[in-house]
Amino acid sequence: MHPIARLDHAHVWHPFTQMRDWLRREPIVITSGQGAVLRDVHGREYLDANSSIWTNLHGHNHPKLNAALKRQLGKIAHSSALGFANEPASLLAEKLVGMASGERRMANSSRGAFRRKDSTLDTRRSPLTKVFFSDDGSTAMEVALKLAYEFTRRTRGPKAKPRFLSLAGAYHGDTVGAVSLGHIDLFHKAYGGLLFKTDAVMSPYCYRCPFNRAQPERADAREYRKCNWECVGKVEAKCSAARKRGNDYAAFVFEPLMQGAAGMIPQPNGWLRRVTDLARSHGALLVADEVMTGFGRVGAGEKVGQRESENGARAHSPTFSPAHFLTGSASAGVQPDFLALAKGLTGGYLPMAATLTTQAVFDAFLGEYEEFKTFFHGHSYTGNQLGAAAALASLDLLTTKTSVAARVRLEEDLRRELKSLWSLSNVGDVRQVGLVAGIELVRDWRTREPFELRERAGIRVCDAMARRGVLTRPIGNVVVLMPPYCTTRAQLKTMVGALRNGVAETLS
Description:
Elements: H1 3-11, H2 19-23, E1 30-34, E2 37-40, E3 45-48, H3 51-54, H4 63-73, H5 87-111, E4 128-134, H6 137-156, E5 164-167, H7 176-180, H8 185-188, E6 199-201, H9 221-224, H10 230-244, E7 251-254, E8 258-259, E9 265-266, H11 271-281, E10 285-289, H12 328-332, E11 338-341, E12 353-358, H13 359-363, H14 385-398, H15 401-418, E13 427-433, E14 436-441, H16 457-467, E15 470-471, E16 474-475, E17 478-481, H17 489-507
Parallel strand pairs: 3-15, 5-6, 5-7, 7-10, 10-11
Antiparallel strand pairs: 1-2, 2-3, 4-12, 8-9, 11-12, 13-14, 14-17, 16-17
Helix pairs in contact: 4-14, 5-14, 10-11, 15-17, 16-17
């Protein structure tokens, strides 16, 4: 065993890892990377098929990101945000607000996404103007949660008892507040005694929806679903019940277009607009968790829906290009009150997060010193200069015409390659939104019978992929593909080929 591997076994406790299994084998020790390629201590090369847990947008060792960090290192690495401002964080806040505002205007002009029936703009949906920086996705969601909680108490009165609604299968981070919003028993049940109560409502999981009357086909389940939007009705019922209790939900929390840790569950066209409109009509704020879905991951290209929409029209007009959107919310035509960003914010270089919110929320925390209206929350590395410098460079890369075109091409290439997986009897569903794909493994696609977790089907397939030089991680029985934006067509073909051969080798 390599000396670094021995040190790891001796001292490092890895996240979301059964450590007994970890200690039974020599780990892959990564030493360097370039683009979509990672190298280990033995000189072996691997393709990074999940962007280093969904963080690395542009590839490893990117020259423009490296240069931005070097320039900032020549000035200062960090100074406190408690009592001081700094240039990179201020510029980044301006850029994030501009991005959010630009996406809102684009949605308005392209689809009338924020217009009432009388074609006037819905001014109740305020623009995002303020940015609170933190460390990671969990803390970004914790900030949104605390702000929404206190804003509700200050606007509805101190006796208000704010309650939150989120989706079944939700994962919003690992801090206590974020865990309270989650509904994955495997992750969250053990901490039940620490958590505050939230309500869950069914997720639009078309492949396993009890209201989907369609028989399995060799296509994304959103294409052939047969239902009456019962999942939307469930949200309406929850909101109505809360109103009858005299305690409207403080906020509805969601991941736009695709739920990540739930198993890469994509939302059918129109679902998010329907349920967020319902939540708003019942007084709820909207909290968009874009930790996974932000920065172009789900914003490129048209989404999959029913073969025939309700009005027979295409989901988007011919002149509309959602590839320009960097958030799933904007792509879906939804304006949240809180937007949580992390993971890809710095292009995978440094831990940094941001929570965007409205002027109205900000104003609720304004007061004289002795009124104690301050938002009593903070992080030692809030607004870190190095992280902000990397984020600015990453956003510059994301918004060039070349970058947008490359993402569109990569999405098309991914969709084309994924089609080859339908020939496998153990592939039940292949679901793709933008540059995120989840491949659900089953005993037989005709029955949709899942593998039991103890069978470790996803883990076995990913191990087989690693032996073929491709690295990713499963979510239970779902294998995730989320390639960096620099991935070539040949590399993508290798990634999908390793998955196809891994399934055939381990499950057939």
